[in-house]
Design goal:
Strand content: under 5%
Order of helices and strands: HHHEEHHHHHHHHH
Strand order of the largest sheet: 1-2
Radius of gyration: 27 Å
Shape: elongated
Number of helices: 12
Distance between the termini: 53 Å
């Protein structure tokens, strides 16, 4: 008796499973595909996504391009200032706006504001991006361990989170800046602005991770009783494998939302510190430092205040809007599309 014919290849098996002509093929979609479909239908979300990509490209490509064109943010255009008005730029509203300087000049020094914006954005985004990455990394790891381990581990990490959350971030940044910057310099960090930038990144991360860790802890507690985790336990998987292979890969939705919301928050914090004089030191500049210096000329040169202020407002707005749109796209309670 002849044996039954078994398809020898995957392609032959697929051909046998192909539906008849005219029959509708129903294909399932992953959560990522559903979220992307929802995001594409959100006009404000897509506008924010395109704006964020454009900002990153401009900040990444802009300064090297200016270096190639020999455009220096520290160049003083003294001949373009009017001594009769107290060294204010010449031109419309004493702004110094021209074809060569489309956003005008800084009063008193004549530095090009467009060049200062690009170089200042590079520092601000570097601080915010690095601090956000460290915050998310620490928050995800400790939040996952706290939620999965439970017991005394959860209790110890929970009390640590409560202890850190008691301290107001802005006040701690102001109070700890002088001694910690000196400590970093004594540990080998280059003195000056590198130590100041390192200090801001570390403080943002240290005081920021408990917020995400609490979110992740709650998600893990709800997932550790799910079937896929119980199956991994029954198969003898180690706790480390369960945490890094089963739990964390299923937490990307809240991680992504929190990241898009935290980054603009750190941009605003860095601007506030620069405004208060705790950020980077001259001659380097950031948007917050430009805002602080523009207060002196707010009545005589209003454009000097509105240009960096508008840039900061726009960047924070589009990042926050992108975070809201991503959260809505990943919300399982949202309508099906």
């Amino acid at each position: 008796m002849s044996s039954p014919i078994i398809p020898s290849t995957y392609e032959e098996h697929v051909l046998e499973e192909t539906p008849d002509e005219g029959q509708e093929i129903i294909a399932g979609r992953s959560l990522r595909q559903i979220a992307w479909s929802r995001l594409r239908r959100d006009k404000w979300g897509m506008f924010s996504l395109v704006s964020v990509i454009g900002i990153v490209l401009v900040v990444t490509i802009g300064p090297p391009l200016l270096d190639a064109l020999s455009s220096d943010p520290l160049r003083l255009n003294i001949p373009l200032l009017d001594p009769a008005t107290g060294s204010l730029p010449r031109g419309f509203l004493h702004s110094g706006i021209s074809w060569q300087h489309p956003l005008g000049l800084e009063p008193g020094t004549g530095r090009d504001i467009a060049t200062m914006l690009l170089y200042g954005a590079r520092i601000s985004l570097f601080v915010a991006t690095t601090a956000t990455f460290i915050t998310v990394f620490i928050g995800v790891i400790l939040g996952t361990i706290s939620g999965y381990a439970g017991g005394w581990v959860d209790g110890a990490l929970g009390r640590t989170m409560d202890f850190i959350l008691v301290f107001p971030l802005l006040i701690m940044l102001l109070a700890l800046q002088p001694p910690l910057v000196q400590r970093l310099e004594s540990m080998g960090v280059p003195s000056g602005n590198p130590a100041r930038i390192t200090y801001m990144i570390l403080v943002f991360a240290i005081f920021g991770w408990p917020y995400l860790a609490r979110i992740i802890r709650g998600q893990v507690i709800s997932m550790r009783e799910r079937e896929f985790v119980e199956s991994a336990v029954a198969m003898g998987s180690s706790g480390r494998r369960i945490v890094f292979k089963e739990l964390i890969p299923n937490l990307w939705a809240p991680i992504l939302v929190y990241t898009t919301i935290t980054l603009p928050t750190y941009i605003a914090f860095e601007a506030a510190l620069a405004f208060l004089g705790v950020g980077v030191a001259p001659p380097a500049t950031t948007w917050g430092k430009m805002l602080a210096e523009s207060v002196t000329y707010v009545t005589s040169v209003p454009t000097y205040l509105f240009i960096p202020g508008g840039a900061l407002f726009f960047v924070v707005l589009v990042f926050n809007q992108l975070g809201d749109s991503v959260r809505d796209a990943l919300d399982p309670r949202a309508g099906r599309v």
